[in-house]
From TrEMBL, chain A:
The chain crosses the membrane at residues 20-41, 62-82, 102-123, 144-163, 189-210, 230-255, 287-305, 317-336, 348-368, 380-404, 416-440, 452-472, 492-512, 597-614. It is found in: Cell membrane. Pathway: Energy metabolism; oxidative phosphorylation. It catalyses: 2 a quinol + O2 = 2 a quinone + 2 H2O. It comes from Paenibacillus radicis (ex Gao et al. 2016). GO terms for cellular component: plasma membrane. This is Quinol oxidase polypeptide I. The gene is qoxB. The keyword Protease does not apply. GO terms for biological process: aerobic respiration; electron transport coupled proton transport; respiratory electron transport chain. It is a multi-pass membrane protein. It comes from the Bacteria. PANTHER family: CYTOCHROME BO(3) UBIQUINOL OXIDASE SUBUNIT 1, CYTOCHROME C OXIDASE SUBUNIT 1. Belongs to the heme-copper respiratory oxidase family. Keywords: Cell membrane, Copper, Electron transport, Heme, Hydrogen ion transport, Ion transport, Iron, Membrane, Metal-binding, Respiratory chain, Transmembrane, Transmembrane helix, Transport.
From TrEMBL, chain B:
This is Quinol oxidase subunit 2. The keyword Transmembrane applies. InterPro entries: CcO_II, CcO_II-like_C, COX_ARM, Cupredoxin, CuRO_UO_II, Cyt_c_oxidase_su2_TM_dom, Cyt_c_oxidase_su2_TM_sf, Cyt_o_ubiquinol_oxidase_su2. Pfam families: COX2 (PF00116), COX_ARM (PF06481). It is a multi-pass membrane protein. Residues 289-300 have a biased composition (Basic and acidic residues). It comes from Paenibacillus radicis (ex Gao et al. 2016).
Length: 663, 315
């Protein structure tokens, strides 16, 4: 019996690596500290009522962003471990198998569990405020989306200490990801972690399309909508067409592994190429899904901090929509070297190049928004200005990669690695940071320390170029991705060492950001944003108090232009004391609001249990999880007590406490 | 004055990067081609870089200029037009210029795609040499069907002669890449991909597996040597005379997951490469050979199973 337990435990838990034991201990201690702290301060009830069961889009957004930061930490530690291993030739800091797991989890976490939730967080906190809505179209679904993401992320991260991490790369190409070569549970964690959170992503896509199309404030026609919601719309269109492909593809891979099907196996008529096509049909739109909202954020910021209208609004809209559509027509450029033939390669090279056109147009429009503006350099704007050269040069290398015959020399080399980090960090991460710094006061009601923020910015930027510019050179020297070590005679060590130093600087930059947030929280009373409009903003979110009240708008705004809040401020200035608001003309009325619900978090917990059962082939877990899911759905179907009205008095006193609607 | 200042700032920012890049060009295999395919690919890289720079360099300069000139400060003389938001002419220019450049690049790319299609034979008076390449976990097997010999992790080719590589995998998919000779081609089970390359001059190069295949994937480098035809013929004779034969049993062992030194074989089982390809491509039945394969996951490669080869190691 004891022997049985022992052998089970050694299979079940990841053993043998001091790094992992260290992580086990720190995870355990953190958990104990959190539980003890929550109990000591009697915060469990508060946590459950205010956060875990909330359907408020702003709180859900904050939880998304918090999770994204945790995942940024995890993915960043993965990155630093890899860079340490590669700093010098022939190091054996990490074993090959461990290294393979780390580059896999780094990729999956950064794209699916960092960029995606960060993006959804920003969608959540800002889209309703920018379009003058009181919540998203489907608040319950929104909460469910978040908790599905969270359950998926936790399931995926669990593989680190239980069972073993996946090691087949972030897109898990078969046949390597099939049972034949990869019999461990890591790959199943991968499938179920992504599958569960992917369903959440799809629902978020639907939710925001409906929100944007149906819930805009009176007078806000589509072409009067701020650029960020436009970017969200283009991104969500790509989500609803691409995520079902991901779900289907992973389901087929799961059937191969679980039920002995032969969709992508080498034997039994399976075809791995099918998987590679399918996964990129999702995977390529995915990178545009995450970068388009960043474009929207930059558009908002560049206009605000240049104190000037966004240049070429229509061009910007068309450009994003064109990118959204074209993103579905380029997937085969990820495997020009798999022998598709000249016709196919030529077609996909051309569609890929086409994307450079609308993207280039956007850059020019940002530049000409700044042209004849009055530029100030607060942190959101710094990130935006830092983004432009970074993205332009990253775009250049992207065009080089799209030249199919030359790509045969770039493919799978560090040149490619440098390129996609260039556009994903320079575009997506810089964009989300810019957005977070920009909207932080609106979210939390206080401003962050600009000085620490600037330190973080410069560390990030210098670290970034030091890390990735040498990787272009390494690619041209023939270094391929995913190698765990390299020999002295290749002459790669100088560039690798510089690259590692750059990565370390980015690690320090992250610490600056953590410090900045901690500092901000500590000094929040002194830096409170009492105006609701700390940056002299242009759009609706700045017209309400900071932090936004739970019902967002006491009365719904009347919109007549793209920069409605800025126009309103102009009108008030010109009109003097007699000026009347044209933005808020309505009377206070009871506000219809959704009620909190515990069902989303319970459903996600059930998904987690079922997913865990699928990973370990524990039928009872699967049955328990799925039955729980069914019970939750039934319970919710028969629940008619889902909404309530906020009485006028409550709105009036809430607004009065912020100095508004006092008359 | 202001412009030059901005330019200087930009130059100061970019200088370290440029220096870094300049410092190591001698080591850049891809930019130091030794064969016609790699040379044409290098030229394409340079042409497309120049074309892109026509847009990118002005944009970078313009960014620096605009950010500098239109920064908000006291006593600023630059214009401020908060409501200026549209100019058909300007927007036409920046929709137009990228379109023109992409059009030019598209023509070059399409031409290049057809010209450099990897399965297209190279124009040459010489008859191409065929080498059958099999990616194994974690080593490369090269078979020379015309010479009847085989090698592991070592590729010898005559200079100035086109080489027709037929590439497959008896392992997860890999990618066969010799940077100084030309672009890579995937090695996939159940398929024989064709790639033509040629070394113009004698020399020692290296190749690698460019697509991840598991634990010891990083050990899949191989040496490439191009020699004169006479030296090549002599080497072939030597291998035929001195090296052991690769038997079917020997191949089975070789295909087991392990890392491997350089090996040479005086012969190989007839039709080995074709069988390797077809055993995966055979459709809807479970190939018995496949079932025998050990999963690649095993953390310790099995050196024991290779004791038989130790005597055969080429030195």
């Amino acid at each position: 019996m004891r022997e049985n337990v022992k052998s089970f435990a050694s299979e079940f838990f990841v053993t043998g690596d001091p790094l992992i034991y260290g992580a086990d201990v720190s995870i355990g201690l953190t958990l104990i500290a959190v539980v003890a702290g929550m109990t000591y301060f009697k915060k469990w009830n508060w946590l459950w009522r205010e956060w875990l069961t909330t359907v408020d889009h702003k709180k859900i957004g904050i939880m998304y962003i918090l999770s994204a930061f945790l995942m940024l930490f995890r993915g960043g530690v993965d990155a630093l471990l890899m860079r340490t291993q590669l700093a010098m030739p022939e190091l054996s800091f990490l074993e090959p198998d461990h290294y393979n797991q780390i580059f896999t989890t780094h990729g999956v976490i950064m794209i699916l569990f960092m960029a995606m939730p960060f993006m959804f967080g920003l969608f959540n906190v800002m889209v309703p405020l920018q379009i003058g809505a009181r919540d998203v179209a489907f608040p319950f679904l929104n909460s469910l989306s978040f908790w599905l993401f969270f359950a998926g992320a936790m399931l995926f991260n669990l593989s680190f200490v239980i069972g073993g991490s996946p090691d087949a790369g972030w897109l898990a190409y078969p046949p390597y990801s099939e049972l034949m070569y990869n019999p461990g549970v890591g790959q199943d964690f991968y499938i179920w972690g992504i599958q569960i959170s992917g369903i959440g992503s799809l629902m978020t896509g639907i939710n925001f399309i409906v929100t944007i199309l149906k819930m805009r404030a009176p007078g806000m026609r589509l072409m009067k909508m701020p650029m960020f919601p436009w970017s969200v719309l283009s991104s969500c269109i790509a989500i609803i067409f691409s995520f079902p492909i991901l779900t289907a593809t992973l389901a087929l891979l799961f059937l191969d592994r679980y039920a002995g099907a032969h969709f992508f196996t080498l034997d039994g008529g399976g075809n791995p190429m099918m998987y590679i096509n399918l996964i990129w049909m999702w995977g390529h739109p995915e990178v545009y899904i995450i970068v388009l909202p960043a474009f929207g954020i930059f558009s908002e910021i560049v206009s605000t901090f240049s104190k000037k209208k966004l240049f070429g609004y229509k061009s910007m809209v068309y450009a994003m929509m064109i990118i959204s559509v074209l993103s579905f027509l380029v997937w085969a450029h990820h495997f020009f070297t798999m022998g598709s033939g000249a016709d196919v390669n030529a077609f996909f090279a051309l569609t890929t190049m086409l994307i450079a056109i609308p993207t280039g147009v956007k850059v020019f429009n940002w530049l000409f928004t700044m042209f004849r503006g009055k530029i100030t350099f607060e942190t959101p704007m710094l990130w935006t200005i830092g983004f432009i050269p970074c993205f332009v040069t990253g775009g250049l290398t992207g065009v080089l990669l799209s030249v199919a015959p030359a790509d045969f020399q770039f493919h799978n080399s560090y040149f490619l690695i440098a390129h996609f980090h260039h556009v994903i960090i320079g575009g997506v991460v810089f964009g989300y940071f810019a957005g977070l710094y920009y909207w932080w006061p609106k979210l939390f009601g206080f401003k962050l320390n600009e000085r620490i923020g600037k330190w973080a910015f410069w560390f990030w930027n210098i670290g970034f170029y030091l890390c990735f510019m040498p990787q272009y050179a390494l690619g041209l020297m023939g270094m391929t991705r995913r190698v765990v070590s390299y020999s002295w005679d290749k002459g790669w060590w100088e560039m690798n060492l510089v690259s590692t130093i750059g990565a370390a600087l980015m690690g320090i930059a992250f610490l600056f950001q953590v410090w900045q947030i901690a500092h901000g929280v500590k000094h929040s009373a002194a830096n409170r944003d009492t105006t609701g409009d700390p940056w002299n903003g242009r759009t609706l979110e700045w017209s309400i108090p900071s932090p936004a009240p739970y019902y967002n708008f006491a009365v719904l705004p009347n919109v007549s232009s793209q920069d409605e809040w800025w126009e309103e401020k102009q009108r008030m200035e010109q009109g003097g004391a007699a000026a009347q608001s044209q933005l808020y003309t309505g009377k206070l009325e009871p506000i219809h609001m959704p009620k909190n619900s515990a069902i989303p978090i319970l459903m996600s917990a059930c998904c987690f249990v079922a997913g865990f059962g699928f990973v370990f082939h524990w039928q009872w877990f699967i049955i328990a999880g799925i039955s729980g899911l069914a019970i939750c759905m039934l319970k919710h179907s028969f629940n008619h007590d889902t909404d309530y009205y906020i009485p006028v008095e409550e709105i009036r006193s809430s607004e009065a406490s912020k100095g508004r609607w006092t008359v | 004055m202001k412009v030059t200042k901005a330019v200087r700032r930009l130059a100061a920012l970019l200088a370290p990067v440029m220096l870094l890049l300049a410092g190591c060009t001698d080591n850049m295999a891809v930019l130091d081609p030794k064969g016609p395919i790699a040379a044409q690919q290098r030229d394409l890289m340079i042409i497309s870089t120049i074309l892109c720079c026509i847009v990118v360099v002005p944009v970078l300069l313009l960014t620096a200029f605009i950010v500098w000139r239109y920064r908000d400060r006291e006593g600023r003389k630059a214009a401020y037009t908060p409501r200026w938001e549209h100019s058909f002419k300007l927007e036409a220019i920046w929709w137009g210029i990228p379109i023109v450049i992409i059009l030019i690049l598209a023509v070059i790319t399409v031409k290049g795609t057809y010209a450099l299609e990897p399965s297209k034979p190279l124009e040459s008076a010489q008859k191409p040499l065929t080498v059958q390449v099999t990616s194994l976990n974690w080593k490369w097997l090269f078979q020379y069907p015309e010479q009847g010999i085989a090698t592991v992790n070592e590729l010898k080719i005559p200079q100035g002669v086109p080489v027709r590589f037929e590439i497959t995998a008896d392992s997860p998919m890999n990618s066969f890449w010799i940077p100084q000779l030309g672009g890579q081609m995937y090695a996939m089970s159940g398929m024989a991909m064709t790639l033509y390359l040629q070394a113009d001059e004698a020399g020692e190069y290296w190749g690698s597996g460019a697509n991840f295949t598991g634990t010891h994937f990083s050990s899949m480098y191989f040496d490439v040597e191009s020699t004169t035809q006479t030296e090549f013929d002599q080497w072939v004779k030597e291998v035929q005379a001195k090296s052991p034969a690769l038997t079917s049993e020997g191949y089975k062992q070789l295909a087991q997951p392990s890392t491997e030194q350089k090996l040479t074989f005086s012969s190989f089982p007839e039709g080995l490469f074709e069988r390797t390809v077809t055993k995966y491509a055979s459709g809807h039945h479970h190939s018995p050979q496949l079932k025998e394969q050990e999963p690649a996951d095993s953390k310790t490669p099995k050196p024991a199973s290779h004791s038989g080869h130790s005597a055969e190691e080429h030195q």
